[in-house]
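Data deposition worksheet. Section B asks for the primary sequence of the deposited chain exactly as it was used as input, without tags or linkers unless they were present during the calculation. Section C holds the resulting structure in token form. Section D is free text for depositor observations; keep each observation to a single sentence. Incomplete worksheets are returned to the depositor.
Section A, Depositor: J.P.
Section B:
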Amino acid sequence: QVQLVESGGGLVQPGGSLRLSCAASALNFGSLTMRWYRRAPGKDREFVADISSGGSLTDYAESVKGRFAISRDNAKRVVYLQMTNLKPEDTALYYCNTRSGGYDYWGQGTQVTVSS
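Section C:
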């Protein structure tokens, strides 16, 4: 059983920055790959980034490469998404995700709105 809680979303101007956090309840957090997804209104869920259990391997969607950075603190059981140079097209509900025991876990999402 894993519970994920995202936070850090908000309203930001284009070019601004936000850092999202995802707190996990899993005691085996340090063994889990963590992922960020987002869903914009009227669009399908989109992969954003993931990070390996130890934090050494990361992957990003092409649309966010060079602007977003995923990281984690296994001692705190938190995964972060540092977002810079935000664009209006980044506006979405951002979710963190992990798989454990063959089951996909999702947080409730945190809203990011990029608008002038």
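Section D:
The chain is about 0% helix and 50% strand.
The longest strand covers residues 92-100.
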